[in-house]
Specification:
Length: about 120
């Protein structure tokens, strides 16, 4: 059983940066696949980024490639999403999720979810 807690959201001007954190407990963090998703009233929940466990590769949605960077710190059992060059369309509730498996992009395959953190990008 894994528990996830996101933090770091807030309001930022377009072009600015935020760093989201996802603190995990209750599992073997290094073995988990971790994903970031976002959701707005206008769109279905969208996969943003993900990394496989045990030193696996990191993957990004085309919409955020070159702007967002995902990382993880096994010592702190925490995953991060560094968000740079933020755009208005990046505004959303951001969720982290985890699974004991290798699928990265598919929401339904994730087993555990955080509560979400709001990111608002203003003009």
């Amino acid at each position: 059983q894994v528990q996830l807690v996101e933090s770091g959201g807030g309001v930022v001007q377009a072009g600015g940066s935020l760093r989201l954190s996802c603190a995990a407990s209750g599992g073997s963090f290094s073995e988990l696949t971790i994903g970031w998703f976002r959701q707005t009233p206008e769109k279905e929940r969208e996969w943003v980024a993900g990394v496989r466990g045990n030193g696996g590769a990191t993957y990004y949605a085309d919409s955020v490639k070159g702007r967002f960077t995902m990382s993880r710190d096994s010592g702190k059992s925490t995953a991060y999403l560094q968000m740079n060059s933020l755009k208005l369309e990046d505004s959303a509730i951001y969720y982290c999720a985890a699974r004991d498996g290798w699928g990265v992009t598919t929401e339904s395959l994730y087993d555990w979810w955080g509560q979400g953190t709001q990111v608002t990008v203003s003009a």
